[in-house]
Amino acid sequence: MSHPVISVENLSKAYRLGHKEEVPDTITGAAKNILMAPWRNFRHLRSHSITDAEGGEDDTLWALKDVSFEINQGDVVGIIGRNGAGKSTLLKVLSRITEPTSGRAVIRGRVSSLLEVGTGFHPELSGRDNIYMNGTILGMTKREIDRKFDEIVDFSGVEKFLDTPTKRYSSGMQVRLAFAVAAHLEPEILIVDEVLAVGDFDFQEKCLRKMQDVSSSGRTVIFVSHNLAAIGTLCSRAIVLSKGAIQASGTVSDSIEEYLSGSRTKISGHSVRCGEKQVFVVSSEEREIHRKCEEALSFKLQFQTPDPIENPSCGFIIYDKSNAPVVGGSSKFQRQSSGGCSNTWKLTCDLGHLPLSPGNYTVSIWLGTLNHDLAKAANFFDITIDDTDPFNCGFAVPKSWGNLFWRGNWHFEADSIAAAQK
Ligand SMILES: Nc1ncnc2c1ncn2[C@@H]1O[C@H](COP(=O)(O)OP(=O)(O)OP(=O)(O)O)[C@@H](O)[C@H]1O
């Protein structure tokens, strides 16, 4: 049976605003940090009591506030949250790069982490020396590192620069080597912060595959990313952080749903499962569209797919309150798509001046390619048409007309011949 390898209890981390904490950018610095921790904590307690005595903590920012969770051996856990939610701070505490202000994180196993660019490398040492230094810190013998060395170099693609100090590497090269080192040195727990933001598509793919390999060999992976589709593909569960606290924790699908629904920017979203572990994330800019009759109607979607797709297509059906379809359309039937290949797409669908009668409607959407279905989402967003007198004539459109009203061109002519014959 799997047992907890990480137990986080009431973990909090405060930063003083305007007093940027020095975060070590090398493993040696991190080791020094750990040795200095008791002294810093003592200083922190003193400064806290001084601040309290002065009656204010206004300059304190809680990057993490009372966070508790457990992670079992073999779990692959995604950490998601908006910018500034505390994700990187949590990973830094788990990697012992920074000390918590209160609470604790108990880690059982050898941790290897890929945090911010440059963390974990000594800038003056060559790529080669950094590989050996990291392996040694992880408790590996020289022979063990020798065995992994070629694989690391091959994965990172920095062979030509192995004897160059890493401070001369581009940020992309540093991340490539750092990920290769972190993932190949057989850690029991692999912690990775947003590796997918750097590097080209092939490298991102390679990283995801490597993390999958690490997890399938029973190791624990903790992975921070803003790429929700990648989190869905890789992780078995997810934790959502919001303003330093846990907003949700559970299955990836539920957590992503919760994350998208809690958005301050009013982005609504659905994560739709297709296949075993694949999560397809779709978000719309508005959850409720309010329009006047015949006012131009459009909707915008963003979607991420686990694998890149070509020629995406979108369809929609608008339903009335009794769930009867009113009208639908599809870019596939109109053979309108986009060239290119990507796993992140933005779409604007312009419906023009659709003459919907006043009332409430729901919209379901379909996404796919010209040849395949990818996902369907019912009740994706609502449309409310909220004026009752589109003709501006003092009469409401009767419900009995149905869900569409029509603005025809009416030509009346007095039929004078017929009138004369009477
Ligand atoms: N070394 C530091 N000194 C002072 N404040 C910090 C420090 N590191 C982080 N913070 C603050 O703590 C909060 C949480 O930051 P953190 O980097 O953990 O967020 P995040 O969720 O990783 O964000 P992002 O998605 O943008 O990377 C932010 O308000 C940030 O400004």
TrEMBL record:
Similarity annotation: Belongs to the ABC transporter superfamily.
Gene: tagH_3
SMART domains hit by this protein: AAA
Example GO molecular function: ABC-type transporter activity
Cellular compartments per GO CC: membrane
Domain ABC transporter: 45-268
Cross-referenced Gene3D superfamilies: abc- transporter (atp binding component) like domain (2.70.50.60), P-loop containing nucleotide triphosphate hydrolases (3.40.50.300)
Protein name: Teichoic acids export ATP-binding protein TagH
UniProt KW Nucleotide-binding keyword: yes
Keyword Signal in record: no
